[in-house]
C-alpha cells in the first residue's frame, strides 16, 4: 500500500483499538500485520508465511483467494453492490435463502438476514420474545442459557452469555436469564455422570419456569468461546425433547459450528435435531464478507402475520441485511461444498486429526483435548494429575501462540485453551504440519512451568 512496515506498526499503536485485546500489553509487542492470503496461508508485510490455524476467527472455509469466490464477488459487483431488503428484494438474497432452507434441518423454511453472528442471535431472541406476545402469551419472556455460553457481544447476546470474564461487567445493562450448567466434564464435579446431572438440572429449570420461558438457547455439540467444550452424545437431543415437552422454543446458535466445522453441514444433524430458530454467520460466505441469517420454522413465522393495524410486524432490520455481495459469495461457497464434496471429504481429515491429538494427550501440560470434527480445544494445565491450571499472570496460552507464530502458524488461545480450527480445505499434510507446530509451541510456551 505504499507505506513501510514500521510506519504501519506505529500508526496501529496510535490509532487501532483491537477487539478482545488488552492493549497495554499488546502495545509492547511487535504487531503482526497481514498483507495477503493464499489458500490456507497468510503472509505478513515481510513475506513471512503463516498457516491460518483458526480460519481467520473461525470463518474461512475454502481458503484465501479461492478463485470461485473471487469471481462471484466480481460478477456481483458488475450488477449492484448493495440494495436494501426493506420491502424490496434482489436475486442473490432470494437464491441464498432458498439454498439455506434446502440444506438446513427440516422445517426451517424462513430466512431473516442480518450482518454477523451477534445480530443473528439478537434476531432470534427478539423473534422468540415477540412470537409469544403475538400469540397472546406475553408472560413467556425469559430465556434459559448454559453456563459458559457465548452468543456475541451486543447486549441481547451478552444477556444470554455465560462467561463471567466477558459479560459480568455489563450486568446492570442486561435482561434477566436462567442458567443451566453446561456439561464441562473435565472440570465438572460430577465427572462420571456429568451429562445426566446437567440435563436433570436443565429440565428442572424448564419445568419450573415453562410458563414464563420463551426459549432455550444453545450452541449445538460444541461451546466455542467457553474453551471448546464438547457436549456428550445425546445431550442436544435431550434438550430438544425437553423444550418440546414444556412448550418452549429452541434456538440453536450455529454461528461457530455450522458449515462443516463439526463434520456435518450443521451441527444439529449429529443428533437429528430441528430447532425452532437457527443462527448462522461466520462461514456463511466462506470467510469473505460479513453476512448472517436466522432461520425460522413456518410456525414461528406465521405468528407475525396479521392485518396492518394489528402491528404483528417484526420491527427489526439492518442496513446491510442480505447484502448482494455477501449473498453472491455465500451461494458460490455452497457451490464449492457441492462440487468438491467437502462434507464427504472431512471424515478422513477428522480421523487423521484425532490420531495426532491422541499423541498430544501424552504431553505433561496437556490436560484435556476436546474435538468435534475440525474444531479442537487443548486445555493446558500446570499439573496434569491434579488438573491445576497455570497461574493467570503467566499467560501461558499467549506464550504458546507467540511461539506458534515463530514456527509459522497463527493460533488463538481462549485463556489457556489452545484452539485449532483450520479451513476445511486443509490437506492431510498441512494438517500434520499444524499439529507439529502446535505441540512444539506448547513445549516452548509451557517451558519452565
Under CATH, the topology of the largest domain can be stated as: Aspartate Aminotransferase, domain 2
* CATH uppermost class of the largest domain: Alpha Beta
- Structure annotation, total helices: 15
CATH architecture grouping of the largest domain:
3-Layer(aba) Sandwich
Beta strand count: 17
Count of domains: 2
Poorly predicted runs: none
CATH superfamily of the largest domain: Type I PLP-dependent aspartate aminotransferase-like (Major domain)
Helix content: 25-40%
Content-based structural category: alpha/beta
Shape: globular
Strands in their spatial order, largest beta sheet: 4-12-11-10-7-5-6
How does this model look, in words?
It is a single chain. With 449 residues, the chain is α/β, with parallel strands linked by helices. It has two domains: 136 residues, Aspartate Aminotransferase, domain 1 (Alpha-Beta Complex), CATH 3.90.1150.10; 270 residues, Aspartate Aminotransferase, domain 2 (3-Layer(aba) Sandwich), CATH 3.40.640. Helices cover 37% and strands 17% of the residues. It contains 15 helices and 17 strands. α5 packs parallel to α12 and α13 packs parallel to α15. The chain is globular. The protein starts with a helix and ends with a helix. The mean pLDDT is 96.
List the helices and strands and how they pair.
Blueprint (H helix, E strand, L loop, with lengths): L4 H11 L7 H4 L7 E5 L2 E4 L4 E4 L2 H4 L8 H11 L13 H13 L4 E7 L2 H18 L7 E5 L8 H5 L4 H4 L10 E3 L13 H16 L3 E6 L3 E2 L5 E2 L4 H11 L3 E5 L23 E4 L11 E6 H5 L21 H16 L2 H19 L5 E7 L2 E6 L15 H12 L1 E2 L1 E3 L2 E4 L7 H18 L4
Parallel strand pairs: 3-15, 5-6, 5-7, 7-10, 10-11
Antiparallel strand pairs: 1-2, 2-3, 4-12, 8-9, 11-12, 13-14, 14-17, 16-17
